[in-house]
Design a protein that fits this description.
Layout: E1 5-9, H1 12-23, E2 46-49, E3 54-56, E4 61-65, E5 68-72, E6 76-82, H2 84-90, E7 92-94, E8 99-102, E9 115-120, E10 128-130, E11 135-143
Antiparallel strand pairs: 1-5, 2-11, 3-10, 4-9, 6-8, 6-11, 7-9
């Protein structure tokens, strides 16, 4: 098995700013951030764990600052999905359908802080409840290629939409 990445926490300052911006309160949960990990040897996905208890009624969304960043070797990408059981039971979805974490995101001004925005899209009026420490999303590393005539030299700095600001 190729080893091509590692998870790290963002700095306490970066996490605190994102937490306050999202939740409008300054809870001290930084020390409780768990790095993503696989549940079994055969698992492809690295589970992302919640740092708080939350419930989402049908139609509700939540943007979660994970406190996590990923160093990824060139030629690889981290794709983020909801945990499959939560998608099956509650239609829990990522608002951007699949989160794409490029290898050069690691060096952005926000330290490559991974945010996950989820929505309960239940059509059966089911409320999803996630407990602190429970896995709610999963990330899978995949190799990718580029075209023969690719000559990109631009450098990223930022998250959502940063590659289209050139």
């Amino acid at each position: 098995m190729k080893r091509i990445a590692r998870f790290e926490k963002v700095s306490k300052n970066q996490f605190s700013e994102a937490w306050v911006d999202t939740f409008k309160c300054d809870e001290n949960v930084y020390d409780e951030i768990k790095l993503p990990k696989r549940a079994t040897q055969g698992s492809a996905g690295y589970d992302f764990f919640s740092t708080l208890d939350f419930s989402l009624a049908p139609g509700e969304s939540l943007k979660i600052p994970t406190g996590i960043r990923a160093y990824i070797e060139d030629g690889w990408v981290l794709k983020i999905y909801p945990r499959s059981g939560l998608g099956f039971k509650f239609r829990l979805q990522l608002n951007n359908t699949v989160g794409i974490i490029d290898s050069d995101y690691y060096n952005s001004d926000n330290e490559g802080h991974i945010f996950i925005k989820i929505t309960n899209d239940s059509k059966e009026e089911k409320t999803v409840t996630i407990k602190k420490g429970e896995a709610f999303a999963q990330g899978i590393f995949l190799e990718y290629g580029v075209t023969y005539d690719d000559d990109v030299e631009e450098i990223r700095n930022g998250g959502f939409g940063s590659t289209s600001k050139k």
